[in-house]
Amino acid sequence: MRNPTTRLFEAVRRRLLLLRLATALRSATWAAAAILAALTLVHLFVARLDVTTVFAAAALPWLVAAGWIASQRIPPEQCAAWADRHLEGKSAYATLLETVGDQPATPASPAVERLLLWLEVAAPRSEAMLQARPLQMRLAKPVMAMCVSAALAAILLQIPTQDTASRLSTSAAPSMSQAELAAGVTTEPGKPPATGGTAATAAARGNRGPAREAPTGAELAAATNAGEDSGQKALPSSTAPATGASGSRAASGGREAGDSADTLEDTGFSTAWQGELARQLLTAAAPADSAPTRADPARAGDYAAAPGPLDDPSAMARIVAAPAVSPEARPRVPVGPAEQAYIRAYFSGSGASQ
Amino acid sequence: MNKTEPAVPSFPVAHRQLNDVCAALEGVIVGQQEVVHGIVTAVFAGGHVLLEGLPGLGKTHLAKALAATLGLQWSRVQCTPDLMPADVTGSEIFSTTPGGGSEFVFRPGPVFAQLLLVDEINRATPRTQAALLEAMQEMQVTHAGTSRPLPQPFCVLATQNPIELEGTYPLPEAQLDRFMFKIKVPYPARDSLRRMLEISLDAEPANHLPVVLDPAEVLRLSALCRSVLVAEGCKQAAVELVLATQPASAAAHSPAQAHIRYGASPRALQSLLRSARVCAVLAGRSHLAVDDIASVALRTLRHRVLLKLESELEGHDADTVLQEIIERWRREH
Asked: 10 Å Cβ neighbour count for B169?
């Protein structure tokens, strides 16, 4: 093989390597963008993912591309075929390799001699064409796509997902309706629902206004015990009228009158919160000195002189105000005739007008 | 190499001589460069040519000019329905010997020539057409059990008229396949017609053509063309082209599957490469390029594919289907 052809083959080999590098970069960039987008969607809708994990996965195509490029070997036959096709070689370079090979040319026939002469003229021309041929990397679009994907991933991966939000909601402050429910817990057992409900509502409103009715210490203790138990059934039965519920759904085995959207479990009230809130209320209501909390048979009790559980204004200040967490939106539950009859009877019994 | 044999010309010399032949023919066959190149290619590739064109386009004139340029002995057969095979191949006649005896003596027919012009071949009966089969393929004529070789080089130029098909016998596929090329002779362009008037209005230019080559040089040039280097990629490309025309092949292109009933034969593949080698020499190269195959593909394949009847009724012809196939094939190679 003579020098012009050898030089041309080397130049073609370099060009082919660059073209393959560009192809590998394009593929890796597109793949990284796709992985980033897919994992961001997974993070948002399926499961929480770590930023490091996502970006490590996006780096995987680059590793594969780098390995692929490192493994590339371009034989002279490929260089010859490419030069024949793109540099007007007219199959001369492939023919040369097949007839002469890499050995120094020894013209064995007039045809080979003529071929070598032809290549002496054609190879520099092909080399000039190769120099004039622009190298198109075409990386703009994939790089742009990957940048957009990376930016979106970096932003969206900071957003807590659904399960994260639900975990947070168990430890977050209650909403106003939860406060109302907590106040409903303090309703005195045996009271009619109307007074209980009114008291609960008033207690809840007490957070917002002065017309607040303080629960007794015994009621708070009962609520604390109920809140420490996990599950809906741990609630005292007296709370049911206060919240408008007529009984647990598990006990009744189906939807009954009053089992509407405003039941305890429908409000999303956390039982853990019942205990916590009650404990806070109990702590706040406890007198600074050791006031008698049990009847002393030895002396006549004068409980009227003792301060009420929430008569101390500073006690209310010690209650930690909690941020409101709205209950989950639920589809509207249609009220059946039985529920309507119950509600009507409830309001007529309580003397309230609808 | 025997010292008495003249040396095989070098490729540059062959390139120049072939172009001289083409230039001489183009001087008298005005405006038909494609036709002239096709015929010269076929002659030096050892093939036969079927010329198709309307009357008056200079087909006979071209044959005479080619014979004159190459110094070939030529003969002509005007085909008619009553033409007998013996009228083409020759016959034995009863003759007396100088010694007073008598014997049957073979009198060669017009087929015993280096260039045979078979005019309006589709007017001859299939039996007479079949008489040409052996001559075209085997380069010999067998008569009364005796085979007689034809002179070399041997080339058949047959013409046929695409109109006036009444009383004609279309060539069977087997005979069509023996023609290396089917060349369509088009109408000359305006400038060519004007120039043709200047050179042939009152003269027969073919009678005054110089002899560029002699038959021996034609044979040597043919041998040189056979030594053209063919790369493996070119062979593979030719195979792919032939397979692309075969609808039953896995490599068939979609136009072939849609319109072609029977594709090109293995003989078409041989003809492709043989003629492409001459094209390479005409281009001054000693190696084959895929471009050479592409340049002869249409005229090599157009009479070797048979379209479906419904495609013909829809107005498709072999040329349009093949051009589409060749374009696709060219993009792949």
From this structure: 17
pLDDT of residue A269 exceeding 50: no
Amino acid at B268: A
For the record, the structure tokens of A224 come out as: 């604390």
Rounded distance between C-alpha atoms, residue A247 and residue B275, angstroms:
99
Q: Which of B227, B232, B290 sits opposite A109 (nearest CB)?
A: B227
Q: What is the pLDDT of residues B284-306, one digit of tens each?
A: 999 999 999 999 999 999 999 99
List beta partners, residue B287: B229
**Are residues B48 and B156 in contact, defined by beta-carbon separation less than 8 angstroms?**
yes
ipTM of the complex in this document? 0.79
Give the ranges where A46-139 is alpha helix by DSSP (H): 51-58, 60-70, 76-86, 92-99, 110-132
Calpha distance A110→A96 (Å, rounded)? 13
pLDDT, tens digit (0-9, with 9 covering 90-100), for A17-37: 999 999 999 999 999 999 999
Q: Do B231 and A94 touch (CB under 8 A)?
A: yes
Distance CA A132, CA B112 (A): 57
Query: Is the CB of A94 less than 8 angstroms away from the CB of B233?
Result: yes
Mean pLDDT for chain A overall: 69
Q: Does B149 touch chain A (CB under 8 A)?
A: no
Please tell me if residue A110 touches chain B, with a CB cutoff of 8 Å. yes
Q: Do A114 and B291 touch (CB under 8 A)?
A: no
Cα angle vertex A31, ends A30, A35, to 5°? 120
Taking an 8 Å cut-off on Cβ atoms, the answer to whether A91 and B233 are in contact is: yes
Beta bridge partners of B141: B148
Instruction: With a cut of 90, say whether residue A4 has pLDDT above it.
Output: no
**Owner of token pair 């002509």:** B76
For residue A348, the model assigns a pLDDT of 85
Q: Which residues contact residue A191 at a Cβ distance below 8 angstroms, ignoring those fewer than 6 apart? A: A199, A238
> pLDDT band at residue A196, thresholds of 50, 70 and 90?
very low
Which of A95, A110, A112 faces B231 most closely, judged by CB atoms? A95
Distance CA A90, CA A110 (A): 19
| B38, two tokens | 């096709």
According to DSSP H, which parts of B139-184 are helical? Answer: 173-176
Question: For A80, left (φ over 0), alpha (ψ -120 to 50), or beta?
Answer: alpha
Q: Chain B closest CA to A139's CA: distance in Å? A: 25
Place of tokens 């590998």: A24
Q: Is A88 on the interface with B (CB under 8 A)?
A: no
Q: Is A81 on the interface with B (CB under 8 A)?
A: yes
Contact A170, A270 (CB under 8 A): yes
> A115 at the B interface (CB within 8 A)?
yes
Which pTM value belongs to this model? 0.64
Q: At what angle do helices A193-206 and A176-185 cross, to 10 degrees?
A: 130
A66-75, A206-215, B138-147, B296-305: least confidently modelled range: A206-215
Among A227, A130, A141, residue whose Cα is nearest residue A181: A227
At B302, phi and psi to the nearest 5?
-65, -30
The pLDDT of residue B95 is 85
Q: At which residue do the structure tokens 């049990």 appear?
A: A294
Q: Does A290 touch chain B (CB under 8 A)?
A: no
How far A6 CA lies from chain B's nearest CA (Å)? 19
What DSSP letter does each residue of A302-313 carry, written as one string? -TTTSPPTT--H
Given pLDDT bands bounded at 50, 70 and 90, which one contains residue B223? very high
Contact A315, A291 (CB under 8 A): no
Q: How far is A131 from chain B (nearest CA, A)?
A: 23
- List the structure tokens of B226: 């056979």
Helices (H), chain A: 3-45, 51-58, 60-70, 76-86, 92-99, 110-132, 140-156, 162-171, 176-185, 193-206, 217-228, 239-243, 249-252, 271-285, 313-317, 337-350
